[in-house]
Amino acid sequence: MSLSPDAVLAGLKEIVEEVAGIPAASIELGKNFTDDLDVDSLSMVEVVVAAEERFGVKIPDDKVTELATVGDAVNFIVNAAK
Amino acid sequence: MNKRRVVVTGLGATTPLGGDVESTWAALIAGKSGVRTLQGEWVSSIPVSIGAPIAVEPIEVMDRVETRRLDRSEQFALIASREAWQDAGKPEIDKERLGVVIASGIGGVITLLDAYDVLKTKGARLVSPHTVPMLMPNGPAANVGLELGAKAGVHTPVSACASGAEAIGYALEMIRNNRADVVLAGGVEAAIHALPMAGFASMKALSTRNDEPEKASRPYDINRDGFVLGEGGGILVLEEYEHAIARGAKIYAEIAGQGLTSDGYHIAAPDPEGSGVKRAIEIALADAGLTTKDIVHLNAHATSTPAGDVAEASALVGAFGDEISHVTVSATKSMTGHLLGGAGAIEAIFVVLALHHRLAPPTINVDELDPAVKLDVVMNVARPLPAGPIAALNDSFGFGGHNVVLAVKSYEGK
């Protein structure tokens, strides 16, 4: 199943808003989860698990640390779903 | 060396009677019951369908994202602490001189049980990373300590239903021993859930007066049949006296002493001789520099169990002798239900306010006083307390045989 980057971004916005209370409108591809969106390490685990459920992909723990920005996460999920 | 004196400069609470101290106190003095029929699918699975849930849900006063990473007991602690800190005037103090001591009887039991349901039905991957910080019993104290940046020490004494009072006693010693100048102290509990209720019901500890919720909690009444489980909590800002005076703080009362003993008798039943309670009272009075002659009011532990109320009443008569005649006794669990680890804290607040406002709260639902209770119970209607320097005690006891008595003096402006 392939996913469009736009669809993944829209889904991630909903997840981050639910988990961290960041308004979806302020979540952009260039935003850093930790520095810009204030998503701490525990909440990042929640985001990852919710994203796996939603997009039907597996995000290994050793990859999570590489997902610094929203764009990194979108790219990883799109590629993983191909 | 003279002991450093400790006064109360701020109060906060969220209880079955109100979402803050003012509304709780107003309902308490009016003799309102916070007990009602519980809602939820699980209620029909246990033999008790009544309880005393808090009056104002946390989501009404907290951010949604904040609530989802905090156990309900932690939410109560933050709500009550924010009110207490505001009430104290949000003092600017050296954080290394600021402490937090907040107790809980059971900890994040609802989080624990809900997370176990997730583990069983959805698997380990979906167990929230917030689970452990939410279920740990020191979570309420830790979260309040984090919010205020407290660095003198953050502590959580656990002694079942005496926990909240023990926390206040611990804070008293932190200030006396010069570890801190200001300490937020109190207790919280959030355990209205099928499992703890089933456990208490199996002990035959809970009232089964399901058809008359508001009549179910009836300490000292001849027809009492057990306690009603409540939830919520209370926080007091304790402050070293000179520190409070120097910043012109409002002073409610003085926490003058504490007495701690243990029964060494039974895991749940009260010692019928009541010697542990008697000794705790004697120790608290001596610690406060008071005698039985000085005490005009007492907030009893009195949970509405057949054995417990009488054992405590007998111990009080034993400790006070003839001096018991001038002690007006209030059993406020008749209105709040039993908040377990939160009980000693909200009842300490009630004692502080009783001295401050010179008004002893009523004990409701005493239709026929148990003749074995030879106390001057403030039955059904609040009663004035005398002017001038007065003092009161707060009794708290817990499963395990823990006895905690706090001695509180009125503040007369010096």
Automatic annotation (TrEMBL), chain A:
Gene Ontology BP annotations: lipid A biosynthetic process
Any Pfam family matching the protein: PP-binding
PROSITE patterns: CARRIER
Molecular functions per Gene Ontology: acyl binding; acyl carrier activity
Keywords, comma-separated and alphabetical: Phosphopantetheine, Phosphoprotein
Cellular component GO terms, alphabetical: cytosol; membrane
Residue ranges annotated for the Carrier domain, each copy included: 6-81
Name of the featured protein: Unannotated protein
Native organism taxonomy: unclassified sequences, metagenomes, ecological metagenomes
